[in-house]
Structures are given as structure tokens and as C-alpha cells.
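pls design
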């Protein structure tokens, strides 16, 4: 099926959907313990008035009843704390769709809707857990699929070791970083990999059964074709939907769309999430490199983005005139580009600066907002050079050029980001799981440059947080807990001078995230005229200890004026 045919089918599907009719004849006043607006004035009240899908007023219950004498008064949120709907601007839903049904064996505590992983932190524990998983598969040839492996904690693993553990059943071990993967001989055979064609590949260690970076993508594409039937996709999206909702998220960006096939991913995302019971809004953001590789030109890629954006949608929609590009490799897999690499670094360019410049210039001239992933200080410096050069050639005032990841950065680069009015977004979870990096950076006296969150807020740079789900759990409260406490998964304090205030952390998952996505006129704070998107908490985050922020229970959410309580 060609691209135009697939897009046409998506149009037909979209317009055949039954959309929700949330029209209300009169306003509803929702009573709470506290309503925190997160706007510039930080309005705090005990009630909020909503009509149809919009906020019309925030004030005391007494005042709102006087202003709207015919309004319904709803007491179902009494005792709760209301905040603007949480926003996560970097979730990889396609990767989550492939990974989530697999068995999690990770060194880090993880809570899935039907499974709690307490953390496996030694080689012996890991091998025992993997052996139990293999034994639980009763049929020879049944796939053994697991994710969460981390060599720093779980020790070495190889094709030889996996073959010994499972000579007949295909075994796939996906690393915690989701950038590398190990397979046994049976899995390589069933995926139809041939050693003579792959032994020279720069990102494959054939004898070890180890695929990373672009080699990892080869395996993921083959697995995707093998596994992503209707039942598998339905199950994985059900897990993702539950977990995202339980975290209080009302809007997120499906970031880096294009893991398998861009148009197909849009199709199955709409099928899964463009439904009345979906309690959040999904914006699709294309990985420009992946789409270019699919179609062979930026002109064709631009046509596809525009066509998909014109599909519209209530719960799922493509960002118009917005695109994302990678630069260096991922932080947690030691692939980021550093000016002075540490000993274990195996840096990678996802898009070398010359290739990136051609791409950014094309879309900049077409008035796209550009978002770039850059992990290390060398990559960030190159991105800033490109931005400055292109912005001087074609100046824009409100460009909202954004850099994501920015895991390792020096103070002089933060100054440059401030001077250029560049937005930033990062994952505090990287700090939480980076014990091996924190040790190596401490040895080189550079630990202070890891996740310099406070430095961004001190310089008044628009800073937001994301989870990079499924690398990290999609919990804005958990990201806020890490940023305010600087505690890793072992309870160790990491560079406490970079702790931030709770108010800044909550801004990072509400109004700051909305500003980066150019949605702050609609969401991100509670103001009359904005969408009635709310996150409803059982406790006031400003009334609990900072060390307990992550433990606050989310009661539910409101999207477009409709309540979605969390079902236990």
C-alpha cells in the first residue's frame, strides 16, 4: 500500500469515528480542598467553574455560586487538590507498544498495572529470574521476551550464555536503555539474520549476538513485523493507557514517531487511542531522520507531515509544522558526544552536524518548530552553533527552538542557551538510574555537570521534564521528586546543589511543557478560556514532605471537561 492510499484510509477512519459530545447546558462548579492555577499569579482557591470543555472561572465556592446561581455544584472532588493537567512532552509510544508486553527484569523498581518489579541488582539474581522466565515457556519455539537488562548490575551476557540457558526457545534480551539487544542463536535464526552479511556491521557483534544503535533498530523492525498483530498491539496499548492515566497525564507528545513506519504508526495509534474512554490527548511528533530515510527527501517528508496534520482528531493528532531530529547517541548507553570523553564512552553521531544542518535549514525556512535531541556537551555545542547560524540567516523572534535530553552540559553552554532564548527539556530519571556515570564523572571532577536542572531555572530558561517512557515510568510526580531531592534509586544524594523548588518542578510538568509545545494558550495552567484539563491529587504536594512527593496518589483526571477517575 502506498503512502497516499494509507493517508486516505486514515481520513475515512477519522471521519467515521463517533466523537464525544460533552456539551453541558449550564456550568458546573467543582469543589476541592485546593485549586492551584500554576499561572503567573499562582491563584489558589477551593472551587473551579467549567462549562462544556472550558474553564470559565476560579474562585471560592461562595463567590462562584453568587456569580453562577444556576450552576450545578459537584462535590465529588471535595478534599482533593486540583492542578492543571500534567504534560509529558517525550513519550515513545511505538517503543512502549513493542516492549510493554515483554517480561520486565530490571535493576530499578517499576510498577506496571499488573506487575511490580522490585529490582534485580546482581548477576546471580538476574540469571535466576531469566532462567525462571525461560522455564515458564512450556512450548519449544515459544518466544522468551524480556527487557530491563543492565550490564552494570547484571553482569555480562552473550549469545553463548543464552544458548546454554535456552537451546530451543528463541530468547530476546532488551537492554534497559532500549538502544541495544542480545539474542540467542534460535532467535537469530527465526528472525532470518545471517552472519556473513552482518559480521562487518559497525553496530553488531555477531558472535556475541549483540546489536546496538542502528543494529538495535534492525532487530526492532524485524520483531515489530513479527509481534505487532492486533492482539499484541491491543494488549500493549491497554497497559500504556492505564499507566499514563494513573500518572495524572492529560497531554503527551508521542515523540520520535517513526520507529517502524511513520504512517502505519499514526494509523494504529489512532485506532487504539481515538476513543471515548481515552483519558488523555496524544500529539504526534515525527522523527525527521527516520521519515527522511523512509521517503528519501525532505520535500516528501514535509508532504506527509502536512497531510497527517490535516487529519485532525480529538484525542490523537499530528503536530502541524513541528519536527524532531536526533544528534548524538543516548546517555545511558554511553553513546553521547562529550568534548572530553570518559573512559567507557563509545560516542555516536545519530545525525552528524553537516547532515543536521541541511535538515534544520529546510524546515526552518518552512516555519517549522525544530526540536533536537542532544545528550553530551559536544553535541549541544554543535546544535547551538547550527541554531545561531541559521537564525542569523533567517531571523525568527518566537522560534521556540528546543533541545531535549541535555544530560551532560557545562555552565558556558547554559549561558549560550539563555542568550539564544532556546527552550530545554530533560529527564530527571536519567539521574535516578545513572549510578555508573555518576561514579565515573565524580572521578573526573565533572559530576556537577550532570543534569544541571537548577542552573536552567536560575537562568530563567523555559525548562520542562519528560519521562522518555518506557525508559522511565510516565510519572510527572516521580520526575518532580527526583528533581527536588536529587536522590538516585539506591537512595544516594547526587549533587544536592542542583536541587530545585517544588513550584519549579510542577511548572516543568505543566505550564513550561505547554509553552515548549506552543500549547500554552490552551493548556498548562488553569485560567478562564483554557481547556478544562485537570490532574486531581489525593494530597496537596505543597503540604507533604519533599521526600514523599512521588507517593502522592492520583485520584484521576479531567479532559475537555469530562472526569476520568482511576479505576483500581
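designed seq:
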Amino acid at each position: 500500500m502506498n503512502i497516499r492510499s494509507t493517508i486516505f484510509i486514515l481520513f475515512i477512519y477519522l471521519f467515521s469515528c463517533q466523537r464525544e459530545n460533552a456539551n453541558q447546558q449550564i456550568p458546573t462548579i467543582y469543589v476541592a480542598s485546593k485549586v492551584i492555577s500554576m499561572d503567573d499569579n499562582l491563584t489558589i482557591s477551593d472551587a473551579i467553574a467549567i462549562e462544556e470543555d472550558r474553564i470559565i472561572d476560579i474562585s471560592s465556592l461562595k463567590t462562584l455560586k453568587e456569580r453562577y446561581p444556576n450552576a450545578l455544584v459537584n462535590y465529588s472532588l471535595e478534599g482533593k487538590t486540583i492542578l492543571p493537567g500534567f504534560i509529558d512532552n517525550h513519550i515513545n509510544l511505538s517503543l512502549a507498544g513493542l516492549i510493554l508486553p515483554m517480561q520486565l527484569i530490571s535493576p530499578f523498581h517499576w510498577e506496571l498495572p499488573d506487575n511490580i518489579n522490585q529490582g534485580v541488582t546482581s548477576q546471580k539474581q538476574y540469571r535466576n529470574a531469566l532462567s525462571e522466565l525461560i522455564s515458564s515457556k512450556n512450548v519449544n519455539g515459544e518466544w522468551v521476551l524480556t527487557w530491563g537488562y543492565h550490564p552494570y548490575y547484571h553482569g555480562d551476557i552473550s549469545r553463548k550464555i543464552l544458548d546454554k540457558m535456552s537451546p530451543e526457545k528463541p530468547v530476546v534480551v532488551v537492554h534497559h536503555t532500549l538502544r541495544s539487544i542480545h539474542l540467542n542463536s534460535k532467535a537469530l535464526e527465526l528472525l532470518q539474520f545471517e552472519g556473513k552479511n552482518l559480521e562487518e556491521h559497525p553496530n553488531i557483534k555477531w558472535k556475541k549476538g549483540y546489536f546496538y544503535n542502528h543494529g538495535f533498530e534492525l532487530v526492532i523492525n524485524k520483531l515489530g513485523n513479527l509481534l505487532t498483530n492486533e492482539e499484541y498491539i491491543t494488549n500493549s496499548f491497554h497497559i500504556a493507557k492505564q499507566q499514563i492515566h494513573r500518572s495524572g497525564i492529560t497531554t503527551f507528545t508521542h515523540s520520535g514517531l517513526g520507529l517502524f513506519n511513520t504512517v502505519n504508526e499514526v494509523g494504529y495509534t489512532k485506532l487504539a487511542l481515538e476513543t471515548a474512554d481515552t483519558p488523555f490527548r496524544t500529539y504526534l511528533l515525527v522523527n525527521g531522520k527516520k521519515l527522511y530515510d523512509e521517503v528519501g527527501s525532505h520535500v516528501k517528508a514535509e508532504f506527509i507531515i502536512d497531510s497527517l496534520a490535516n487529519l485532525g482528531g480529538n484525542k490523537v493528532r499530528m503536530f502541524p509544522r513541528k519536527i524532531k531530529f536526533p544528534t548524538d547517541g543516548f546517555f545511558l548507553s554511553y553513546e553521547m558526544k562529550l568534548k572530553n570523553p570518559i573512559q567507557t564512552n563509545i560516542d555516536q553521531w545519530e545525525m552528524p552536524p553537516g547532515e543536521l544542518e541541511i535538515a534544520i535549514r529546510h524546515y526552518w525556512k518552512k516555519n517549522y518548530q525544530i526540536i533536537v535531541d542532544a545528550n553530551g556537551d559536544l553535541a549541544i555545542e554543535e546544535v547551538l552553533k547550527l541554531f545561531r547560524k541559521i537564525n542569523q540567516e533567517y531571523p525568527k523572534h518566537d522560534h521556540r527552538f528546543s533541545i531535549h535530553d541535555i544530560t551532560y552540559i557545562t555552565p558556558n553552554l547554559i549561558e549560550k542557551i539563555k542568550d539564544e532564548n532556546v527552550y530545554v527539556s530533560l529527564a530527571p530519571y536519567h539521574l535516578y538510574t545513572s549510578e555508573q556515570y555518576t561514579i565515573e564523572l565524580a572521578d573526573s571532577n565533572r559530576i556537577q555537570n550532570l543534569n544541571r536542572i537548577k542552573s536552567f531555572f536560575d537562568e530563567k530558561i523555559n525548562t520542562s521534564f519528560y519521562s522518555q517512557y518506557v525508559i522511565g515510568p510516565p510519572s510527572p510526580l516521580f520526575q518532580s521528586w527526583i528533581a527536588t531531592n536529587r536522590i538516585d534509586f539506591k537512595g544516594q544524594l547526587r549533587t544536592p546543589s542542583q536541587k530545585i523548588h517544588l513550584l519549579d518542578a510542577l511548572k516543568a510538568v505543566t505550564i513550561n511543557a505547554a509553552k515548549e509545545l506552543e500549547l500554552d494558550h490552551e493548556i498548562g495552567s488553569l485560567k478562564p478560556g483554557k481547556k478544562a484539563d485537570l490532574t486531581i491529587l489525593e494530597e496537596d504536594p505543597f503540604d507533604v514532605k519533599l521526600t514523599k512527593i512521588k507517593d502522592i496518589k492520583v485520584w484521576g483526571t479531567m479532559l475537555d471537561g469530562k472526569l476520568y477517575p482511576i479505576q483500581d
